[in-house]
Automatic annotation (TrEMBL):
It is a multi-pass membrane protein. The chain crosses the membrane at residues 32-50, 308-329, 349-369, 374-393. One of its GO terms (cellular component) is nuclear inner membrane. InterPro entries: TMEM43_fam. One of its GO terms (biological process) is lipid metabolic process. Keywords: Endoplasmic reticulum, Membrane, Nucleus, Transmembrane, Transmembrane helix. Belongs to the TMEM43 family. It comes from Pedionomus torquatus. PANTHER family: PTHR13416, TRANSMEMBRANE PROTEIN 43 (PTHR13416:SF2). It is found in: Endomembrane system; Endoplasmic reticulum membrane; Nucleus envelope. This is TMM43 protein. Its main location: membrane.
Length: 399
């Protein structure tokens, strides 16, 4: 059953749906499906937690290996054959052979990357739902509201609850794209694609020094508008902005070329990935002029943050999995409100405690598998309090 009510504005309406309350067997069936999903999530959390410890250790070993082998280059303007195949450290300004162009808008810049970002003025649907029980039925009241906004992706208005009056075009007349310089260098060394991918310090390009490229395009601030009136755009109008990353030449408006620090393997005049004995890959790039120690410190910090983030994700997956698997107990008592609420609190507490314990246990097993000496040391330390306590107990008097 559906009921509609309009608020008087074509930008907002409310829809009310109602359905009979599901029976016990139906709810039990839904819970069984959730239990299966919970079991899968629960098992995946073990895999995530265990492999994360191995990944973290492998990264640490690779970074330590890299730090012990890396060679700082004396000059970035000459290629020494003595360093062929070795891990090298260098810092210098980015350079590219040719500027990047967007002929459609008469724009060029000496940079590693140039991104054209196209947005279209479109209808966007928002919904707010509330559920309540009435006359033995579950009623759902959904409020739909519509607003016009600039969006980088096409919003499919066919999925709107009410498309009439809120119809969007199916495609953009102008497409977004990112141009990447085919040859990026630091001094005499050419950067690999993996290193170029790490240059992502995008900044918006000021268009104040450019003219309007076409009669039907108007510049306003740092945007080109495909609109009759940019101050009062209509659905379907476009606006275009530009972003650049890795300035690779001195620019009177933008300043000097960006400096980067690179650690990678030298292969001829190219800087390529270095494969460590631990099975990891080192090809590191940071903006700015950094020492070898500063680079590896940043990498260790990044590895630590990633390790803890994945540990938290593993714990959350385990908590959700346990909650879904134990949901059946809530379903069995949900006819009794007081009991149901108590059981719900108890199940959440149970899931929290078990997930925390199993997460710590899995991480410790990972340490035992990947770091046996550390695990053995921790095991020995755990026995110390017991030994100390027993040593303080006086021996029994001889009978």
């Amino acid at each position: 059953l559906q009921q509609f009510s309009d608020t008087g504005s074509r930008k907002e309406h409310v829809k009310i749906t109602s359905e009979s309350k599901p029976g016990f067997l139906e709810r039990l069936s839904e819970t069984s499906g959730g239990m299966l999903m919970g079991l899968v999530t629960f098992l995946l959390s073990f895999y995530l937690l265990f492999t994360n410890e191995g990944r973290a250790l492998r990264t640490v070993k690779s970074l330590d290996e890299g730090l012990s082998l890396v060679i700082p280059l004396d000059s970035i303007h000459s290629v020494s054959q003595q360093n062929e195949g070795r891990l090298v450290h260098l810092a210098g300004a980015l350079s590219t052979t040719k500027p990047l162009f967007d002929p459609s808008y008469g724009l060029s810049i000496q940079a590693v990357k140039l991104k054209r970002n196209v947005e279209m003025y479109q209808w966007v649907e928002y919904e707010e739902s509330t559920e309540y029980e009435e006359n033995g039925e579950i009623r759902k009241e959904t409020k739909y509201s519509y607003n016009t906004e600039w969006k980088s992706e096409v919003v499919n208005s066919r999925n709107f609850d009410r498309e009439i009056g809120h119809k969007n075009p199916s495609a953009m007349a102008v497409e977004s794209f990112t141009a990447v310089s085919p040859n990026v260098q630091v001094g005499s060394f050419v950067l690999s694609k993996g290193l170029v991918d790490k240059i992502d310090n995008f900044k918006q390009l000021s268009l104040s020094n450019l003219e309007d490229p076409h009669a039907d395009v108007t510049r306003g601030g740092d945007y080109f508008y495909h609109s009759e009136n940019p101050r009062r755009p209509e659905v379907g109008d476009l606006r275009v902005s530009f972003f650049y990353a890795g300035l690779s030449g001195d620019d009177p408006h933008l300043g000097s070329a960006d400096k980067v620090t690179v650690i990678a393997r030298q292969r001829g005049d190219q800087l390529v990935p270095y494969h460590t004995k631990s099975g990891d890959v080192l090809q590191i790039l940071y903006l700015g002029d950094l020492s070898v120690e500063e680079v590896f410190q940043k990498e260790h910090e990044s590895n630590t943050m990633k390790t803890w983030a994945l540990r938290a994700a593993g714990w959350l997956a385990m908590f959700v999995g346990i909650s879904l698997m134990t949901r059946i107990f809530y379903t069995l008592v949900d006819w009794f409100p007081v009991v149901r609420d108590l059981v719900n609190i108890g199940l959440k507490a149970f899931a929290f405690c078990v997930a925390s314990s199993l997460t710590l246990l899995t991480i410790s097993i990972g340490w035992l598998f990947y770091r046996p000496l550390w695990a053995l040391l921790i095991g020995c330390l755990s026995v110390v309090p017991i030994v100390v306590a027993k040593s303080r107990v006086p021996p029994k008097k001889q009978q």
